[in-house]
């Protein structure tokens, strides 16, 4: 039992029309589970239109601002003045009653993967509550908090933003004991005057810290002094991480292998060695940040390092998988790096570095030489310099080792035109137009990266690539 009608009414100041007990909180009738509290938010559609459907699907109650049409007045409804405000109140009440140590994470790049790292490393030392998806906005944070069981040991709350002034209220709602900033990079520049403005917004996460809280931040950045000053202003204890000398937790050597990354470094005066089961320098640096959080929480570092080796990237965030092209011969396959969830210059550069370090296999397909191939979609919300930032990707050192780049979108055309002709694949205006070409472009032995901003729909290209997979045939003994 997560909420009783009496507890929920007290938390929100609302009125329960009938007694209820709920075991979860949901905003989507497509994924609702029996016993959930359905929250009738207004988004593209008014959630009140789906209350009857939610109750019919087994919802234990619904949080509403009016009695919807077709729903009886004695239904298990919690009536509030405003549904989003009611959800926020539930989130605050859940935070107030928990004994959990709370960690909040933000950053231009890597906040979701770092949240998942923290779920893994803290999960070896207690029970952890964290959102199953990237729920980091004005409704995602209170939803994550409202879903938090009473008796967890740790909570990891991801906090994002698109515009100024969004992070501080969410951080105050989460009230973290430790707040972490992964990196500040050009993203959402259309809404900010500069990267310094982005840094000030990210640093607002420290405003929510509990007394004697700890600020964990990347110390390698041009804007790190802004993060440091904001943390000091909030009265926080500071732990910096990164690769530069002077960071409290620093990575000194990174070895990127085909399927993992091995890093050596120091946690202040203590040498440490750890591994993550995904290639990428950026994963190693953020993993060091996660270990800094473990240190801030005064938990066992050795157990955390052992748990960290079990973490793998999720779908759309660097997940690697083998696509078998022949049902009998498993050698006839290529590797897919699915990083299609989102993109900005920093994260794209990191992903291309991973692709450059990958090892294609030769002598397998119709094209004897295995290739490193990228499918790249537009990076959005980059402001006035968007064309130049796209074109600059072509000049990254790692591009030397990448054989072919297929580009989608009017902005990514700038990069496509900046590439040497022998590296130019197809350019299409949309990802849908690229989908039809995929099956003809790829061959056994290739390594393929797909990446772009979410609105570009690069995930449809990933789906088309996965459809090339042939299930292994049953072989009789």
Automatic annotation (TrEMBL):
Record EC number: 6.3.2.10
Residues passing through the membrane, by range: none
Annotated metabolic or biological route of this protein: Cell wall biogenesis; peptidoglycan biosynthesis
Domain of life (superkingdom): Bacteria
SUPFAM superfamilies, sorted: MurD-like peptide ligases, catalytic domain, MurD-like peptide ligases, peptide-binding domain, MurE/MurF N-terminal domain
An example Gene Ontology biological process: cell wall organization
Pfam family for this entry, one: Mur_ligase_C
Subcellular location per the Swiss-Prot or TrEMBL entry: Cytoplasm
PANTHER family attached to this UniProt entry: UDP-N-ACETYLMURAMOYL-TRIPEPTIDE--D-ALANYL-D-ALANINE LIGASE (PTHR43024)
Entry's family note: Belongs to the MurCDEF family. MurF subfamily.
HAMAP family named in the record: MurF (MF_02019)
Annotated function: Involved in cell wall formation. Catalyzes the final step in the synthesis of UDP-N-acetylmuramoyl-pentapeptide, the precursor of murein.
UniProt-recorded name of the protein: UDP-N-acetylmuramoyl-tripeptide--D-alanyl-D-alanine ligase
Species this protein is from: Tropicibacter naphthalenivorans
């Amino acid at each position: 039992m997560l909420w009783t009608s009496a507890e929920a009414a007290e938390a929100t100041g609302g009125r329960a029309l009938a007694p209820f007990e709920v075991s979860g909180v949901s905003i989507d009738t497509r994924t609702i589970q029996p016993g959930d509290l359905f929250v009738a938010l207004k988004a593209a559609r008014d959630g009140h239109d789906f209350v009857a459907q939610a109750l019919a699907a087994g919802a234990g109650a619904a949080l509403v601002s009016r009695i919807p049409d077709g729903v009886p007045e004695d239904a298990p409804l919690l009536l509030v003045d405003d549904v989003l405000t009611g959800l926020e109140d539930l989130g605050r009440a859940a935070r107030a009653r928990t004994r959990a140590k709370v960690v909040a994470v933000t950053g231009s790049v890597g906040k979701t993967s770092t949240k998942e790292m923290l779920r893994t490393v803290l999960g070896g030392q207690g029970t952890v509550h964290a959102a199953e998806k990237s729920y980091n906005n004005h409704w995602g944070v209170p939803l994550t908090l409202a879903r938090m069981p009473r008796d967890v040991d740790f909570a990891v709350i991801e906090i994002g933003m698109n515009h100024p002034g969004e992070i501080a209220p969410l951080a105050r709602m989460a009230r973290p004991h430790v707040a972490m900033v992964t990196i500040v990079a050009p993203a959402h520049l259309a809404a900010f005057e500069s990267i310094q403005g982005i840094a000030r917004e990210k640093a607002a996460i420290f405003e929510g810290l509990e007394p004697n809280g700890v600020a964990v931040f990347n110390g390698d950045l041009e804007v790190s002094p802004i993060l440091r000053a904001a943390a000091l202003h909030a009265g926080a204890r500071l732990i910096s991480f990164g690769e530069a000398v002077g960071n409290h937790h620093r990575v000194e050597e990174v070895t990127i292998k085909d399927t993992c990354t091995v890093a050596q470094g120091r946690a202040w005066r203590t040498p440490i060695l750890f591994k993550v089961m995904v290639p990428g320098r950026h994963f190693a640096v953020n993993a060091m940040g996660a270990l800094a959080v473990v240190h801030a929480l005064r938990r066992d570092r050795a157990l955390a390092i052992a748990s960290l080796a079990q973490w793998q990237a999720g779908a759309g965030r660097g997940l690697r998988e083998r696509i078998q092209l022949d049902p009998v011969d498993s050698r006839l396959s290529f590797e897919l790096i699915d990083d299609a969830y989102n993109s900005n210059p920093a994260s794209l550069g990191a992903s291309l570095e991973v692709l450059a370090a990958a090892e294609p296999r030769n002598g397998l397909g119709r094209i004897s030489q295995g290739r490193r191939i990228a499918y790249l979609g537009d990076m959005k919300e980059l402001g006035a310099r968007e064309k130049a930032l796209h074109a600059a990707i072509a000049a990254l050192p790692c591009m030397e080792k990448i054989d072919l780049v297929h580009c989608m979108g009017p902005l990514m055309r700038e990069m496509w035109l900046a590439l040497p002709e022998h590296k130019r694949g197809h350019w299409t205006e949309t990802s849908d137009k690229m989908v039809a070409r995929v099956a003809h472009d790829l061959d056994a032995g290739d390594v393929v990266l797909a990446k772009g901003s979410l609105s570009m729909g690069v995930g449809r290209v990933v789906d088309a690539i996965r459809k090339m997979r042939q299930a292994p045939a049953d072989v009789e003994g």
